[in-house]
UniProtKB/TrEMBL annotation:
This is N(6)-L-threonylcarbamoyladenine synthase. It is found in: Mitochondrion. GO terms for biological process: tRNA threonylcarbamoyladenosine modification. Its EC number is 2.3.1.234. It is an enzyme of class 2 (transferase).
Length: 409
């Protein structure tokens, strides 16, 4: 219905056919950046595109942090039958879905692509074929409209989202990034500048939630719920008794207790071994719930202890952090949020977590990271490629040839 209100593609071609070439000229990127520097943040609009994993997402966000429109097509029903994400299928579905996700996002914001001030896209890390779909689309859109292009690090986008529309979430801050691909604590010194404190030595916490949920025989949640199997485990844990199957907290002994790193593979394997030894029945709902609760308690205790350690390390580095930011899919878990809030309270700083729905992958975080990077002139050439593996603390080593002036008032 909404689509019908716009000119059909054929009609648009006819209109173009009547225009003199001079009327079709667009401003060069440099000229656009000059125009941007005169705009108030509230007038800036950035389109963000996310296709690094299994969500085809886009959003338009204003320079002062208002979400003007957002769309997210999950692929859970596609991958559920395989028990995990199939990279080739994910890329094929991004290919199929991205054009209409983009169209719906622009229509939702009441904008045409030419009204947008910049295009931001997840450049990495993630699955190569999936990243390629979003990056190719963003480059083409930006290039034909001579728009500034911003390549975004997926984990920086998770982290920076805590600052959207908030003047009080200031650098430096301690950052806990917990997702399906990452489990890291860092100091965020500024946009583009991060120092890693701790990282996982094996599985990420999200991976462990997913694999344990699978081993417990939990069903993949409803297709429109974000976040994969993690929410299924959280829901089961809420019905369970964590004390029935006590599990050891990882890296809690002697030497490894002092390390800020994480490890979740041992905990995951512990659950599997107990199942294989018949200690619980993965088809019995109460056993599933009690085991889910036990796993979640140990995993959350591990996150809490290592985050506290990261805060101590940050202070030892002389970093006077303003808050703890927690983001990434696992930060939508209520038990994780409660545990990290307790760490923040002990450190006498606030815990800043995006709302649960924005902790999992979305287009808003990419658009907002685009705003933050654009503000600092961190633009990318139309020729850039995606980066599959990309440590966040290597971000500042990237060359940024097209430096724009700030659009801050
Ligand atoms: O950030 P994200 O959406 O995608 C990646 O960048 O990986 O994180 C997805 C991960 C998945 O492993 C998912 O199971 C986990 O976050 N997750 C959760 C919850 N919601 C999502 N884990 C535990 N509890 C949740 N409520
Ligand atoms: Zn993510």
């Amino acid at each position: 219905m909404i689509l019908a209100r716009r000119l059909s593609t054929k009609a648009q071609t006819r209109v173009l056919g009547t225009k003199a070439p001079a009327q079709m000229r667009v401003l060069s990127t440099k000229a656009q950046i000059r125009v941007l520097s005169t705009k108030a943040p509230a007038q800036i609009r950035v389109l963000g595109i996310e296709t690094s994993c299994d969500d085809t997402a886009a959003a338009v966000v204003s320079g002062d942090g208002r979400i003007l429109s957002e769309t997210n097509r999950h692929q859970h029903s596609v991958h559920a039958a395989f028990g995990g994400i199939v990279p080739g299928l994910a890329a094929a579905h991004h290919q199929a879905n991205l054009p209409l996700v983009l169209r719906q996002t622009l229509l939702g914001a009441g904008l045409r692509i030419g009204d947008v001030d910049a295009v931001a896209v997840t450049r990495g890390p993630g699955m190569a074929a999936s990243l390629g779909v979003g990056v190719a689309a963003a480059k083409a859109l930006a290039a034909v409209h001579a728009l500034p292009l911003v390549g975004v690090h997926h984990m920086e986008a998770h982290a920076l989202l805590a600052r959207m529309g908030r003047d009080d979430v200031r650098f430096p801050f301690v950052c806990v990034l917990v997702s399906g691909g990452h489990t890291t604590t860092l100091v965020a010194h500024d946009v583009n500048r991060y120092t890693t404190i701790g990282a996982t030595r094996d599985d990420s916490v999200g991976e462990a939630f997913d694999k344990v949920a699978r081993d417990l025989g939990l069903a993949w949640p409803d297709a429109q719920d974000g976040g994969g199997l993690g929410p299924a485990l959280e829901q089961a844990a809420a019905r369970g008794d964590a004390a029935r199957f006590p599990l050891p907290v990882p890296m809690d002994k002697s030497a490894s207790a002092a390390s800020p790193d994480f490890s979740f593979a041992g905990l995951k394997t512990h659950v599997r071994r107990m199942r294989d030894a018949g200690a619980f029945d993965a088809r019995a709902p109460q056993d599933q719930a009690d085991m889910a609760a036990a796993f979640q308690r140990a995993a959350v205790a591990h996150l809490r202890k290592k985050t506290a350690l990261a805060c101590r390390r940050a202070r030892a580095m002389g970093v006077d952090f303003s808050c703890i930011v927690a983001s990434g899919g696992v930060a939508s878990n209520a038990a994780v949020r409660r545990a990290l809030a307790a760490v923040a309270e002990a450190e006498r700083v606030p815990l800043e977590c995006p709302p649960p729905r924005l902790c999992t992958d979305n287009g808003v975080m990419v658009a907002w990271a685009g705003v933050e990077r654009l503000r600092r002139g961190l633009l990318d050439p139309y020729t850039f490629d995606f980066i599959q593996r990309w440590p966040l603390d290597r971000l500042s080593e990237m060359p940024y040839p097209a430096r724009a002036s700030s659009f801050d008032p």
